[in-house]
């Protein structure tokens, strides 16, 4: 067996992913910003304002669920590398991290450290020390983290300065970069919320396997919401 992954390693990987999630979520919540995804009830609309927080979170589950299904349908997204790595767990974990960042923001949580603690607990069942999650340790390098965050966000990093439309393919590449960065803690990815056992069984079948995988990821996102509710209730 390999050496156990430390909380510090988990935080080092999660912080750039959480920070890069911000501009990605901004594009996803802005009408017409991301080509290929459309919705009537979007943030800022009258329908959105009339919906409670649970309704907003349901919207994010559906939004990210659709994104996940579309991204996984892009041929050759990961190239030859995708054939050798646990791609579904990597992309699934990245999508779940996006959802957790959205949930945190719906609850008014803006602090990166608290978002990291939420993600670590929901995804990997780790109770991270607040100081460590905030990057307060002797190994923390803010410049390195800024560079990694910008690399993961890609063209999304300019979404606030340049409010232009972004393609689904670029969204897929960004999600792939985030997932690939999570492979640094590969042994943790299996701990994330998954779908039901029958989703995984169907996912192993030819032809219909993609449907099983997609339904499993949607089910996993719903489990993420339930676990997030537990953490937020405990932290309140």
Describe this structure in words.
With 236 residues, the chain is mostly helical. The protein contains twelve helices and no strands. It has helices at 7-29, 46-49, 53-71, 79-82, 87-106, 112-124, 130-133, 142-153, 168-182, 186-189, 197-203, 209-235. Helix 1 packs across helix 5 (87-106) and helix 5 (87-106) runs parallel beside helix 12 (209-235). The chain is globular.
Q: How are the elements arranged and paired?
A:
Elements: H1 7-29, H2 46-49, H3 53-71, H4 79-82, H5 87-106, H6 112-124, H7 130-133, H8 142-153, H9 168-182, H10 186-189, H11 197-203, H12 209-235
Helix pairs in contact: 1-5, 1-6, 1-8, 1-9, 3-5, 3-9, 3-12, 5-6, 5-9, 5-12, 6-12, 11-12
Brief summary of the model shown:
Helices cover 64% and strands 0% of the residues.
* DSSP, total strands: 0
Rough outline: globular
Strand % is: under 5%
Largest sheet: none
Please compute the radius of gyration using only Cα atoms.
17 Å
Q: Helices and strands: which structural class? A: mainly alpha
* SSE string, helices as H and strands as E: HHHHHHHHHHHH
Fraction of residues in H or I helices: 55-70%
Distance between the termini: 38 Å
What keyword list fits this structure?
236 residues, mainly alpha
